[in-house]
Amino acid sequence: MEDIRDNDQEQQRPLAMTLLAGLYLFFFLLTVSSFGQPYPLLGVLYQGREAEALVFVDSLLCLYLFLGVVKRQRLTWYLLLGYNLFELANTILNLVSISAAELRAVVGETVDPQELLTGNLTVIVFILLLSAVIIRHRSAFINRSRYLFFN
C-alpha cells in the first residue's frame, strides 16, 4: 500500500506544469485567432497567404508544445526553451526593424511608438521569466519518449 502512495507522489503533476500547459494552450488559441492578420517575423511584416502560412506553422508549434507539456515529454523542455529564445529574438528584431509608421500603414490605425516599445519590453521580460520557470521545472519533464503519442 505504501509503494502505491510513493508512486502516486512521484507521478503527481506539479502545479507549474498545469499552468505551463494552460499558458501554451492560450498561446495556441491566441495564434489561431490572429489568422488573417499581418504577421511580424524577424523584422518583416507579412500579409496575405504568407502571413496565413506563418500563423498555421506557429499554431502547430504551440499545439505541439502544449501537448508536450501535458505529456511531460523531455524533448518538449528543449523545444520550449528554443521556441522562447526564438520569440525573444523575433520580438527584439521586430522592435528594432518595424517602425510605428510602418505598422500604422499596414494596420490602418494609429500606433503610439511609446506603447509599442512598452508592450514589446513587457513581452521580453515575460519570455525571460517564463524561460526561468521552464528551466527550474526541468525535472518535471519525465517522459523520455521522442514521440508524443507513442511510448
Characterise this structure.
With 151 residues, the chain is mostly helical. It has one domain (2-140). 72% of the residues lie in helices and 4% in strands. The protein is built from six helices and two strands; from the N terminus they run H-H-E-E-H-H-H-H. The chain has helices at residues 2-11, 15-33, 48-71, 74-97, 100-107, 113-136; strands spanning 39-41, 44-46. It has a two-stranded antiparallel sheet. A hairpin with a 2-residue loop joins strand 1 (39-41) and strand 2 (44-46). Helix 2 (15-33) runs antiparallel to helix 3, helix 3 (48-71) packs antiparallel against helix 4 and helix 4 packs antiparallel against helix 6 (113-136). The longest helix is centred in the middle third of the chain and has 24 residues, at 48-71. Residues 1-10 have low confidence and may be disordered.
- Using only C-alpha atoms, the radius of gyration works out to 18 Å
Low-pLDDT residue spans: 1-10
Walk across the major sheet and give the strand order.
1-2
Order of helices and strands: HHEEHHHH
**Counting H and I runs of at least 4 residues, what is the number of helices?**
6
Structural class comes to: mainly alpha
The chain-level mean pLDDT equals: 84
Protein traits:
about 150 residues, single chain, mainly alpha, 2 strands, two-stranded antiparallel ribbon
Summarize the structure.
With 151 residues, the protein is mainly α. The chain is built from 6 helices and 2 strands. Strands 1-2 form a two-stranded antiparallel ribbon.
